Amino acid sequence: MKACLVLTTIFDPLVLGAYRRNFERFGHLDQVEVIVIPDRKTPAAAFERCREASQRGLRTECPTLEEQERFLSRLGVDPNFLLYNSDHRRNVGYLMALGRDCNFVISLDDDNYALDSPSPEDDVFTEHAIVAAPAAEHEVIESDGGYFNICDLIEFEQGKTGVFPRGFPFSARHRASQVTRTKLTAEIPVNAGLWVLDPDVDALTWLVSDPHGKAYRGKPEILGTRTWSPVNTQNTALRREALAAYYFVRMGHPIGGQSIDRYGDIFSGYFLQACAKSLGGLVRFGTPVAEHRRNAHNYLRDATMEWGAILVLEEMLPWLTEVKLSGNSWIETYRSLSDGLDELAEKFTLFKPSMTEDARGFLRQTAADMRIWRRACERLI
């Protein structure tokens, strides 16, 4: 069993030390290779950090921008398709991982640290490796509201409750829902680890509630075929071939006069879930838990950049959670989904005509980008 860990950074990736220690502690150091994708702002210290990690046993690659561009060109992809000075660059790492001899991929943000703990549930490799396991019988949960709040698995400081993850639809928040449990035999191609310290919540929640995770509680939960929750890129694993349905969506499109941002991974996570469910797979949330040492943020600025994406998501999710996709592979279902987005764009509506046209343009551009992504992945699988 082998894993490829992918992250992008414009900082010195100190996080590599925490993961090297974790893989070494649990005996997986020789089963992991790391791809760090630098950007134009990435300091020289990042390259040195990657060399140091390799010297200490964690095989780490940090391709220069020129090497990244040559790689994309060999795939027939315009290097400018993936934005510079953006977390959109992580897509380069995903494509590189897709071409590697690994069973699964761990997507990581550079501020999510592996816990320095001997507890078995903190074994990053083993907990994420469930995505490469064959089908088995699992206990799954179904919510009659259609969504499960994964932040309920976190104990917050000062006893705060009613905290929801970034990307959880506002229309489904603070509503009473009934959760039932049942047994289901299926594969789990997607595993989303949670976080202590700073949870992944939207800027509005940071401004209003300022939540901080004290501890992970309970046990991992597997969502049934009719229940959804946001999947991000912070501490998430998926089987290698599922990368064909995990394009990190391009941000920057104007909606209502403001360029949207900070939801590229949320759109990609929901699209990934749609394809997984169509193929009979399930999504697991919980372990391994990371310590999210959140970089500094201006939450007022973040809120304005998230707002347009939130509006699009609220309008899109009722369609996405019911759409029937065709295809028997990740590439085929992703093709079906991109075609569906084009059809959705024609009947999409927001508050004002100008915003509606902006949102339709975003959906059309995303569908076109997904087709470019699919063609690149076909050359690698």
Write up this protein.
Helix 7 crosses helix 9 and helix 9 packs antiparallel against helix 10. The chain is 35% helix and 20% strand. The strands form four sheets. Strands 1, 2, 3, 4, 5, 9, 11, 12 and 15 form a nine-stranded mixed sheet that branches. Strands 6-8 form a two-stranded antiparallel ribbon. By secondary structure, it is of the alpha/beta class. A hairpin with a 2-residue loop joins strand 13 and strand 14. It has a single domain, classed as Spore Coat Polysaccharide Biosynthesis Protein SpsA, Chain A. The mean pLDDT is 97.
- At the first level of CATH, the class is Alpha Beta
Low-confidence stretches: none
The CATH topology name reads Spore Coat Polysaccharide Biosynthesis Protein SpsA, Chain A
What is the string of helix and strand elements? EHEHEHHEEHEEEEHEEEEEHEHHH
Q: Tell how many strands the DSSP assignment holds.
A: 15
**Largest sheet: number of strands, sense, barrel closure:** 9 strands, mixed
Structural class: alpha/beta
Supply the CATH architecture: Alpha-Beta Complex
How far the N terminus sits from the C terminus, by CA atoms, comes to 18 Å
Count of all domains? 1
Overall pLDDT: 97
Contiguous helical run count: 10
Percent range of helical residues = 25-40%
Share in β-strands: 15-25%
Mass-distribution shape = globular
What is the CA-based Rg, rounded?
Answer: 20 Å
Secondary-structure topology with pairs:
Blueprint (H helix, E strand, L loop, with lengths): L2 E7 L5 H11 L6 E7 L5 H12 L3 E3 L3 H10 L15 H9 L5 E5 L3 E3 L9 H5 L7 E8 L10 E3 L22 E8 L3 E8 L5 H6 L4 E4 L4 E3 L11 E5 L14 E2 L2 E2 L4 H15 L4 E10 L6 H22 L9 H17 L6 H26 L3
Parallel strand pairs: 1-2, 1-4, 2-3, 9-15
Antiparallel strand pairs: 4-12, 5-15, 6-8, 7-10, 9-12, 11-15, 13-14
Helix pairs in contact: 7-9, 9-10
